[in-house]
Write a structure and sequence with these properties.
Strand order of the largest sheet: 5-2-1-9-21
Structural class: alpha/beta
Radius of gyration: 21 Å
CATH architecture of the largest domain: 3-Layer(bba) Sandwich
CATH topology of the largest domain: FAD/NAD(P)-binding domain
């Protein structure tokens, strides 16, 4: 591409200081950069610290419009309704369609639906992230109103989101003097995404704190205050968390772009979508080929490459370091197939968080 380009960023995931600094440079070079997203956003990286009670909920809230303004780029406070790739237009809920020459999509993920859970006053999902703010508020209210009473919390899901939420909630209860009894119901095996020994350490940590861990126990639906398993067994709860996995937003399925079975957007190793040389994708609802990580650094570099006629680079295969704060002065760190558990991992986590906050 040559000349001034209309660069449209879809989705609040773009509201990240390093990326906005990158696209701000494109704006200063004469390109028209616009972020289209709902203004209220939740800082995903802060969620574990939020649930553990280490930070105030207000810190986890971001104003995408304010951040875009600080970066000197345009902002539209709205959500996506659909795409017209042939015409180069994005349809939104309010106002006229937005044209683009270069499109970057960071779709917000949702959580797989469970019958009976949607709209249930005592059921929460890991997506959208605002529901986790509601979960913390519900736990704090119960701890305050019924001191000494144990809150029965059931989590459906066996991945890192489910286990991380359980560990953070145990830390929150300890911080506030509350009591929580956690049951984790996994469709298959627990923590298959971690090296076996690392997963065992986390599961031992939970078991030592009274958590009940059930594998091959898929939740079919929610009825009243019970999670009903596919085999017919029922597990009673006070609060329920759906952590059964991420799915793409509904508008992606009708966009004409290639999505997988979960509605997540497929892209190639350079984050280009569907063989198009002017559409990039990144974020939690994106699935790059070859298991590569849809990293934000790659997105910034490739946006610049596309508007200057350079060759985009491939996303790395290695995922960034994973940190899980255990709430007891230690953390688990996992990167490139290696892992460690202890205080040094917690110090590394604190450094990473502080760097992002600054």
């Amino acid at each position: 591409m040559t000349g001034s380009q209309r660069i449209l960023l879809l989705g609040g995931g773009h509201a990240r200081p390093p990326l906005l600094k990158h696209v701000s440079a494109l704006s200063r070079r004469g390109h028209r950069v616009t972020l289209l997203a709902p203004a209220p956003q939740i800082w995903a990286e802060a969620v574990p610290a939020l649930l553990a009670g280490r930070i105030d909920p207000g810190i986890a809230r971001l104003d995408a419009g304010m951040m875009a303004g600080q970066a000197g780029i345009g902002f539209i406070d709205d959500a996506v309704l659909g795409l017209d790739l042939k015409a180069g237009l994005v349809h939104r809920h309010e106002g006229e369609p937005v044209p683009f020459d270069l499109l970057s999509i960071a779709p917000d993920a949702g959580t797989r639906t469970l019958p009976g859970a949607a709209g249930h006053g005592h059921c929460f999902a890991t997506r959208p992230l605002s529901r986790l703010l509601d979960l913390r508020a519900a736990l704090e209210a119960r701890f305050a109103q019924h001191p000494g009473r144990v809150v029965a919390l059931t989590i459906a899901g066996g991945g890192l989101e489910a286990i991380g939420a359980a560990i953070a909630i145990i830390a929150l209860a300890a911080r506030l003097g509350g009591h929580v009894a956690i049951t984790i119901l996994a469709r298959g095996r627990l923590l298959t995404g971690l090296p076996e020994r690392a997963g065992v350490r986390l599961l031992e940590y939970l078991s030592a704190r009274g958590a009940i861990l059930q594998e091959m126990a898929a939740v079919a639906r929610v009825e009243g205050h019970e999670a009903v398993l596919t085999g017919g067994d029922r597990v009673a709860f006070d609060l329920f968390v759906n952590a059964t996995g991420r799915v793409g937003p509904a508008w992606l399925k009708t966009s004409g772009l290639n999505v997988n079975g979960d509605g997540c957007l497929r892209c190639d190793a350079k984050l280009l979508v569907g063989g198009l040389d002017h559409v990039l994708a990144v974020g939690e609802a994106v699935s790059p080929e070859g298991g590569r990580h849809p990293g934000w650094d790659t997105l910034g570099d490739n946006l610049s490459a596309l508007v200057t006629g350079l060759v985009p680079r491939k996303a790395p295969r290695q995922r960034p370091p994973l940190f899980i704060d255990l709430g007891d002065g230690t953390a688990l760190a996992h990167w490139a197939g290696r892992w460690t558990l202890g205080r040094p991992a917690l110090w590394a986590l604190r450094w990473a968080e502080g760097r992002w906050l600054l």
